[in-house]
Here is the input.
Amino acid sequence: MATLRHSMVAPVLLSLLPAALGLLGACELFYDPAAPPFDDRLTSTVMVDDVFGDLRRSDVEMTVLDNGSRRYLLVRGRDKGGGERTVAFDEDLKVRMSRSDVWDIRNAFVDVNGNFVVERMLFDRGFSLEEEEIYDNPPDSERVTGVATPSGVVLLGVENHSLEAGPLYDSDWNELNGISSNDIHPDADANAREGFRLKAAQHDVGRARSGLVLWNDALSRVFVIEVSASLAVDMQDPGLAGGTFVTDEARYITVSARDYDPVFYTRRGVVVLRDKRDHEVFDIDSGERLDTYHVASNAEFAFAYSPDGRWVYTLDKSRLRLYKARTWW
Amino acid sequence: MSVGSGGKIPGRRRTLISVLILLSCLLLCRPALVSAESLPLRVLVNEPQPGGPSEVPQESEQRLIRLLTEALAGELELLGFAVSRDPAETAELALNLRYLLNGERLTLVITVTDAASERVLGGGSYVGTTDLGLVNTIRQAAADTARHARAATGISGTHPEPPPVLQQLTLRSPNEGAGVEVAGSVPLGVIADGKLEAPFLPLTLGSKLVVWKHLDGYHSERQTILITDEHMDVQLPELRPRVNWEISLSWMPQRWAGAAVGVRRYLYPNRFYVQSTNQLSTRYRFESGSRASGVFDTRLSLGGYAVTALRDRFRLGLSTGAGVTLSLLGGEETAYFFADTYLKLFALAVRWQFDRFAPFLEADLIYYSEAATGYLVRGTHGYFSTGVLLPWRR
Here is the structure.
C-alpha cells in the first residue's frame, strides 16, 4: 500500500512542477531587468537605426493595420535627420513605406478593398501610395478614422459629446451619403466645453469590428467602444434616434487611465499600457481585467498590439531595435 | 652556536654582550650601600633560570646570570632588604628569577615566595630591551618585588596568605609546530606532540592571558584564556588554513533558471582577489508560448573585503569588473545570437565564514553598454545573487 502511495506521489509532483516553475517565473523578482519585454516570445527582430535617429527623448507612436491577409506595423518617430517620419514594416519587419508627410497613424484604417488609409492617403496592399487625398469631405473633427462596411467606408470622427458618422464612400471612394451626429454616452455633459476626443482606432477586419479609443476630459476616463460594420452604417444613415446613445448600441468599457496611456483594442481584449510598464488586458464584455504583464526594465520602449490580439511589437528606443513577439495572454 | 673565524660576532651573542655591559654599568653606578633597616626583611635571591632553550655560550650565560643576580640584589638592598645569595642562609622571602633572551628583547619573570611555606606572595613579568632601558626595567622589577614583599608581610605579620597564582599551564592544539606568544611577540614556545608546557607565568586566578597562535599557511589567531585554576590544561581551537583559491557556486533570482560557478584567486590572503565567474541560464519561463533560450554570462571581477568582524567570520566586500552576456534566442524560423558587454560598476557582498564553506549574498550594479551586437536594455540594472564559497586549493 505504501509503495502504491509513493508511486502515485511522484507523478503528481512532476505534474505540478511546470505550474510551480510558471509561478516562479511570473514573479517580478525573477525577471532579468536587462532583458527586453517579451523576449521569451520573440519571433523576429531587426535593427531600425538605418531609419530612425535618436528616439530616447521623442514621442514614438506605433499601430498595427491588418486587412485579413497582410499585416503592417506603422511607426512614427524622429528620423536620422531630426524630422518626423512614418515607416510601415511588413510581417518580416521589412520596410515597405517610409514617408515624412504621414502623421496621424493611430487612426489609420482598411477600406472595403483591403487597401490602407492613413490620414487621406490611400496605400495599396503592398503599402505603395495610390492616392494622396482619397477623400475630401471629412467630418468636422480633428481626427478621423474609417470603418469598412458592406455598404462602403463610413468615416468616423468625434466632436465634443457626439460621434460624427459619415460620409459614406463606395468601393471606388465615391461619396454616397452625408454625416450624422450621434450622442456618445449619457454621462457626458453635452454642454461641457471639454468632451470626447478620438485617440486611436483599431480595426478587426476579420470580425468586421472596430475599436474606437476615446478620451473624455470631463470624466478623465478612457472609453473603448466596439463599433460593428452594421452599427457604423446605422449611425451614418439615418443616425441614432434621439435619446439613444452610441454606448446603448455598442459594447464598450471605461478604463481609469491617463490621457497619454496608449490603449489598444484587440479581438482578445483591450490592452492598456500604464506608464508603459504595466500592460493590462480588459475584457470588453465584462470590463474585468484578464491579465497583466509588468515590464521589469525601466528603459524606454514603444509598444503596439495587433487587432487580432496575437502579436505585440516592441521598439527599444535606446538601441533602436524592433521586436515582434507573440502575446502572453 | 659557533663564532665565525672572520671575527664577526653573531647577533645573539652581540646582544648578550650588550646586556652584560649594561648590567655591569648598573652595578658600577650603584651608590654605596646605605645602612639597612634595623630589622630588614631577609631575601634570598636564587640563581636566575633560563625560561627557554639557550643559544649562547655557557660562559656568557653564567656571566649574565651573575650580573642579573647582582643587579637585582643590589636594587633590593637599596630598597632596604637584607639580601642573601646563599641558599643555606636563613631568609623570610625567596626570590626566583627566570629570564628569556630573544634577540634584542629580554623578558624577566620574577616570583617572590615565602621561604618557609614556599607559597607565592607576588611577582610579575617584565619585558625590556637590551639597551639603557634595561636599567629601568630591573629597577621597576625590584621596586615591584619590594612592594609585593612588604605588602604580603604586612598583611598577616610574618607569613601572609598569598593570592593563588597559575602554577602550570598546558596548551594543546592540533596544529603541530604552531608558535604561541604572549604580550605581542614574547614566545611561550611551540606546539610539539600536540601540546606546549608554558613556562611559569605568575598570573593570579581570575586574570586573563592573551596568547597569539601562528603557523605558516594558517591565519594567526588571538585567544584570551581566563585563569581559573593553578593548573590549567587548555585546548586551543584549530587554526584556519590560509586559503588562496576558492570556488564560488551561486544562483541569481533574476536569472533563476540557471546557476553560476566561479574561481577566485586571492592576491592577498582573505583580502583582495580576482575572480572569474561563468553563468549559464535560460529565459524560458515555463509558460505556454514561451520559447527556449540560452544565456551564457562570463565576467572578471576584482574585489576585496573592506570590513571584517567577529574574528574574520563576517565580511563585507566590494568588487568591480566587466563581462559579456551571450544570448541565444530561438525565433520562429531563425535563432538570434546577441553579445552584450557590460561593466560591473559596483558590487556589495556579505559573507559568513564557516570552517569549510562561506555562504554569501551579493548585490551588483551592472551597466550594459550599447554594443551593436547586443540586445539587452542599455543602462544600469541591479542584480542579486546568493551562493557559497568553497576553499579549493591552498
